[in-house]
Specification:
Number of helices: 5
Order of helices and strands: HEEEEEEEEHHHH
Largest sheet: 5 strands, mixed
Radius of gyration: 22 Å
Strand order of the largest sheet: 3-4-1-7-8
Helix content: 40-55%
Number of domains: 2
């Protein structure tokens, strides 16, 4: 690695280190209270859910992203209960669903299957595989376009590009998908933290494994591609389920 490349890497590492160790005073809202999120695929517009087993019998707040609807209950007393009864109303009909499994985690996720009238703890099958695959494909396409624009042509360069990105972006997206609640409230923060490590890993690995251009040129590509990927990833979180 030439002096320019070494200097760039050292500057990035120093900036990252300073951001992590320098104390700062910040004002922010308190964290969200314990929540129960009910995931529904393609929910009807008139669908409402009420928690009957609570004294206040609150109605779920609604958040929709793409084809998924999230019906959220924020209740500090929910975790103390041994069972929950929900009233689901849609198309002039009402049904009761009982979830008799104690909720133990901070953010709880259940899935409501309206067609089969089933309410089950956790997310629906293959959801994680589908969403991780979608985000990974988007990232590879975006960074691949940047890679092509930077005039990388050698077969080895492209092989290294795909191998490194499949590992780093795959791990990042699996980690984001395992964060618990599908609500995007704090996932942007998780994305930024995860991308810091992706930046460092890819900038180091690409400069070592790719020989087609100068190290400084490869570093410039890695920084720009991951910056675009970070911005795009933040947008994807707001328009696709997580």
């Amino acid at each position: 690695m030439n002096k320019t490349g070494k200097g760039f890497v050292m500057a990035m590492l120093l900036c990252t280190f300073m951001i992590l160790i320098i104390p700062a005073i910040a004002s922010a809202n308190s964290a969200e209270p314990p929540s129960l999120v009910i995931i529904i695929n393609n929910p009807p517009d008139d669908l409402s859910i009420t928690l009957l087993s609570s004294k206040n019998q609150p109605e779920a707040s609604i958040h929709k992203v793409a084809w998924e609807g999230y019906y959220v209950f924020y209740n500090r007393d929910m975790l103390a209960s041994d069972g929950y009864t929900f009233m689901v109303t849609t198309n002039g009909e009402s049904f009761e669903y009982v979830l008799d499994i104690p909720l133990k985690s901070y953010n709880n996720v259940v899935t409501l299957d309206l067609s089969n009238r089933k309410l089950e703890l956790g997310k629906y099958p293959f959801r994680s595989v589908l969403l991780v695959s979608l985000r990974l494909v988007f990232t590879l396409v975006i960074e691949g376009i940047v890679f092509w624009l930077f005039r990388f042509k050698h077969k080895r360069s492209w092989m290294m590009f795909f191998a490194i990105n499949l590992i780093t972006q795959g791990v990042l997206n699996v980690w984001l998908n395992s964060e618990g609640s599908p609500m995007p409230s704090y996932l942007i923060i998780s994305l930024i933290v995860g991308e810091i490590f992706v930046f460092i890993t890819e900038m180091t690995a690409l400069t070592i494994l790719i020989k087609e251009h100068k190290k400084s040129y490869i570093l410039a590509y890695a920084f720009l591609a991951n910056l675009i990927s970070l911005i795009t990833g933040g947008y994807i979180i707001t328009v696709l389920p997580v």
